[in-house]
Amino acid sequence: IAKEEGAIVVAMVSYPFEAERIRRKRAAEGIERLRETTDTVIVLENDKLIKYAGNLPVNDAFRTMDMLIAETIQGITETITKPSLVNLDFADLKAVMEEGGVAVMLVGETIKADHKPESVVEDALCHPLLEADYRGATGSLIHVTGGSDLTMKETNDIVELLTYELDQNANVIWGARINEDYNGMAKVVAIMTGVEPRWTFGGVYEERKERVGANSASGLSALIPVYHR
User: 61: which of 45, 52, 70, 162 is 20 to 30 A away, CA to CA?
Assistant: First the structure.
């Protein structure tokens, strides 16, 4: 009904654990049906909780996922509702999310003061709850937050690094905001739409190519060869 009334309908769903074999099959079928009545479906895999919060009590582990979802929604909402250096508005959100299909979300923060673009992108790509292969995605909504020391080049580099493997005709929209709490740091929240389901659902496409070197200063060269030339 909401979609028929002109609203942008975004569903955020969890994909069952690998051990839940029949539920995974039913979930995949359900997501396909859900795509018919929504604009974008963001898929989160429960299996990632085992890697990220496997030693926590069950309630705390699921609460971690809930907090991440809330953080992402807040980040995207603030890109529209709060003043930014590079503003996004509802029209931008609609352009990326309308008929966006299956989507994944990325959240990353710098883990070191140097090489801000590389470190924040590496953190986003390697987040154990969100890691996903989004090559060929057709849309991207990105928001970068940094301190007063955040430069235009750093912001542009973050966007380029995140979008390098998107479809050549992908609709990429980004914004940036200054927050003094992030001096010497940067944070990125992104939603990639138009992702092929086989890259998202673990039971269908298990292989994840390791493209970021965990201990190499130039580890992202495997992902963005041109950037490091």
Answer: 162
